[in-house]
Amino acid sequence: MPESVLARAERVLETGVGLDEAGVLEVLRLPDDQIPAILELAHQVRMRWCGPEVEVEGIVSLKTGGCPEDCHFCSQSGLFTSPVRAVWLDIPALVEAARQTAATGATEFCIVAAVRGPDARLMAQLAEGVKAIREAVDINIAASIGMLTKEQVDELVALGVHRYNHNLETSRSYFPHVVTTHSWEERWDTLRMVRESGMEVCCGGILGLGESVEQRAEFAIQLQELDPHEVPLNFLNPRPGTPLSDQPVLDPKDALRAIAAFRLALPRTILRYAGGREITLGDLGTRDGLLGGVNAVIVGNYLTTLGRKPDEDLALLEELKMPVKALSATL
Amino acid sequence: MIMIVWCDRCGRALDEGPHSACAAARELEPPRYCGQCRRRMKVQVLPAGWRATCVEHGDLTPTSS
Ligand code: SF4
Ligand SMILES: [Zn+2]
Ligand SMILES: [Zn+2]
């Protein structure tokens, strides 16, 4: 009889080496009654290989909407009839957003722009913003401004951006069903350059885009190959006016299976709750995920939608006896 | 007196309801349409709030809406 997936997950716990694609797929297909056991194992893996700390991050949109790309889940594409209009954040408001984020105890502040890649105006705005935040607020600054050239990667390093987010979004095989204006490989190229630059790589995606469980497993393994510092996991929150507006929200049990599977594929990675957890998992599921492999959260609001109050998340972490990672520990 | 006649989430007339799904969604979304004139607003979401601006009717914040 082949070794059970629970036995293989035990080996992840011992060795710190992630599950292979077949193992991930098995976790994604586990019957409902085995979900608690696999979440428990994923939690042990996280505690053993990452520790009890939770990394807290806030994000803000520096440039919202009007994006020329067609990512079918995104309310910020200018190609759909989404009600989201283009707007830029000014520097004082950006600094204030960083200050509000730091006040929650967060160590990460990610500045995001809805673009294919940055132009000179955006790079200048980002440079000014990063400088202003560094003068006023004690927090690590991350950025997410699309596909980069080598020169732009170097500029971000020179600015002191310590982590760069660029999501592959979904598996390589499913990507063309979700995005047609650029390729998965173009995204991979940016990630490769970011990695080589020494910046920390943050790369995740969205579950529930209509991908199959096989493609979900494929995606976990592609992330394993990339080996990012952080993987943000989003769950689709279907947005009005986008091609995926009628896509059903992911079943919470499938979301929990995915959390365990991604943790078991990526034992040492920061696995972050990003958008969509509120509508997919609710409060109870959020807690289950934090006890099932997740070790980082985005607090406060997202880019175009709102999140839970930071106090509620922080109270939950305290109740779970999970200390918030301190800034000194990240430097 | 301010007359709110449009749903700030879907932009349709409030009396063409129901907008209960919109109201539920608004718990986790900022407004997108001006309730007075139905124009799409410029909306900036911030970590601890949001700001929406109608070109005709001005600024709206979580406390003013
Ligand atoms: S590139 Fe980013 S902002 Fe633009 S449509 Fe895709 S996900 Fe949205
Ligand atoms: Zn409505
Ligand atoms: Zn108006």
TrEMBL record, chain A:
Family matches, as NCBIfam families: bioB
Organism: Planosporangium mesophilum
EC number(s) per entry: 2.8.1.6
Record protein name field: Biotin synthase
Cofactor: [2Fe-2S] cluster; [4Fe-4S] cluster
Subunit structure: Homodimer.
SUPFAM superfamilies (UniProt xref): Radical SAM enzymes
BP GO annotations: biotin biosynthetic process
Free-text remark on how the cofactor is bound: Binds 1 [2Fe-2S] cluster. The cluster is coordinated with 3 cysteines and 1 arginine.
MF-aspect GO terms: 2 iron, 2 sulfur cluster binding; 4 iron, 4 sulfur cluster binding; biotin synthase activity; iron ion binding
Keywords: 2Fe-2S, 4Fe-4S, Biotin biosynthesis, Iron, Iron-sulfur, Metal-binding, S-adenosyl-L-methionine, Transferase
